[in-house]
Design a protein that fits this description.
The protein is mainly alpha-helical. It folds into two domains: 84 residues, no CATH class; 104 residues, no CATH class. Helix content is 34%, strand content 4%. It has six helices and four strands, in the order ββββαααααα. Strand 3 and strand 4 form a beta hairpin. Helix 3 runs antiparallel to helix 5. The two termini are 74 Å apart.
Amino acid sequence: MSNPYGWSPPTNGQAPVYFSPPAQEFQTASPAPYYAAPGSAYYPAPETSYYAAPVSPYYAVPEASNYAAPDAPYDNGYNAYRSFRDQHATQPTRDPFAGLPRSSNPFLSLSARGARQKVTMVEALILWLRNWNNFSGRASRSEYAWIRAVQLVGQILWWVLLVLMLQERDLAPTDDLTKLAVSIALLVTSLVALVLFFPTLSLTVRRLHDTDHSGWYVLMRYVPFGSWMLTRALYQGSVASGFRFDDHTKPPYGVEDID
């Protein structure tokens, strides 16, 4: 154990403190600047009386008269002075992410939550059909946008063909072949719409999941002005917190699953 007695080093602008052994008297005048020469005892500053202890290795700066400020708290040279209350006071902590939406939390980044990749038109068609019955997980904006674009083009071409067939039927009302062609076209239209209903619905639900909306949000189309709100949600960018809709027991097919 080191010797606890003697001079403490002057730290943090405070005067040194002398800890005397029991039964040893140490007299000092009012605190004042002092000098110390290497390898010698302390010498008083000019016009001051100072009784110093034996040789000490510490040196003081003559100009720093604030070392002996009477109101400055003293320490033993090992640590800055702090009261017991200051050392053990409970400091309130503030959550830097409190009040922020989940999408702005850096710990919920898209890369950390397995974001869906951008896909081409062919890839989007394959994933759309392979995930026809998957209502969990997420779908990227490109997956949904490509399918909607293909469906829109297909619907326009189909309606053009149907209108031409109806005009042909009106021009030849007695032509049984034209009537049969129109009936077959309507039947095929109904069957195609029925077959593609579930793949399109599952894709819509997964796209809503990717924007952190529940799949039931699709019912907004039946609410006044709800179609606009639904369209806005469907074409919104991906939100990292949408990972809560992922089902790890039944993940959707991704680009890596395409042969």
